[in-house]
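[Q] Does anyone have a clean structure-token version of this?
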Amino acid sequence: MDDKNYIHFDPKNENESKMKEYCEELCINSLFNKENRGKVELKYYPLLKDLENENGYFVLNKAYFFLNFYHKIKFQTFQFLTEDYNAFNSYNEFSSEYAEKGGEEILFRNLIQLSLKNKYYKVIFNEEDKSLIDCMIFNNRHIFLFEFKDYESINRLDSIYDYKEVEEIIDKNFIKKKGISQLISMMDKLKNNNNFNEFVIKKNIKFQNIEIYPVIVVSNSFYNIPSLEHYLTLKMFEKINLSKLNFKKIHNLVILDLNSLVELTYYNNQFDLIKCLKEYALKKSKFNENVSLPNYPSFRDNFIKSDFVKNSNFLIQFLKLTNFENNKDIAEMPNNFF
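[A] Here you go.
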């Protein structure tokens, strides 16, 4: 992909021809002449085929193009290992194995690196003890703890209506031994482990002045729900109150999803994850839940100001920038296409 969001495939390259076949499925051109197409969302059709070059494509939305490829590769890997080697009995079994190599080491780590704009941040990814969290970022006396969860829709959670059953599933996957418990274990390890003296003692930072920012990153935006973030925050502080952690402040939990992180990283050159987490922590500290209908804050809503998925102005501007206004198909598009 070049700087102008343009992809060109070499027809003589067998690997590229396979990617081209997939890109054809993502082209919005196929909808131009359909009457009953319903609501069109760029997340399903993030490409526009170049009618003057059969091997060229314009990328309308880099974030969703990127995520489409990630999930496509993941599913095709599952099909290959299952059909050719009988390696997995179910997609959930495969997903748990894929999470470490595909989700965490490739997607999560690269997005974290891309979202940081300050070269003085000290980033540590967990390479050894898998019982601990996946990433830490040191910014002087501010320490950010990240735990990545590559979950699909757990046990059909989106179709369960029994509150107690939902609570048990959430507690199992986000609190007991995972997620919240891992974050708190890391806080305790920070306080007692000399391995972190390099970032704390050498900078003359006292532990009682350290502020902790706990973050859970989820692969599925289904779990990035403000009310779930609030529920897990309450459970986190219940556990923290039982521990003797003498930090200056442990901020409210933040839940981030990969879709939001991709959008923010690709579409905002000024986006810095650490600065945004600090700003969001301040906003959450002022949130008042003692009202009849509390409007829980959301990291996504706070920093993604407009929805690129449904913003027709974005597409119009793109077409003008790429000199497509004279194209016949574009000219025949109805005004209410999006």
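[Q] Thanks! Anything notable?
[A] Residues 124 and 136 are 5 Å apart (CA to CA).
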